[in-house]
Amino acid sequence: MDNCFSLFYSRDMFVSVVLDPSSMDSAKALASVLIHFRFKKVQRACWEHSSLSKESLVLLKKEIDRVTDYYDIVRLYQYPVQECLCLTELAKKRWKRCLLKGTQLRSSNL
Hints:
With 110 residues, this protein is of the alpha+beta class. It is built from three helices and six strands; from the N terminus they run H-E-H-E-E-H-E-E-E. It has helices at residues 2-8, 24-36, 54-67; strands spanning 13-20, 40-43, 46-52, 73-81, 84-91, 94-100. It has a six-stranded antiparallel β-sheet with strand order 2-3-1-4-5-6, with helices on one face. Strand 2 (40-43) and strand 3 form a beta hairpin. The termini are far apart.
């Protein structure tokens, strides 16, 4: 039964990255990092990856930290992380993380 379950369960996660670079050089450096990790640009400042591993995410954050400066802002939306949506932000060269746990939707009789 474990083998069957593992076919449908993946440890990879959806990751969306939203950029607010302080300069054109930062924008180019961040774009090259995201391209290297095979992200796809979906909007002007938004990139997405549908199945990024935890190990790749750690490397991605290190690379983002390496190419950014104090004035750059980078926000990552990750799902699932501990069965929650995780928002991770790099601002002023500091990483902050917030886990958002959803509530169950109830049907209403209107």
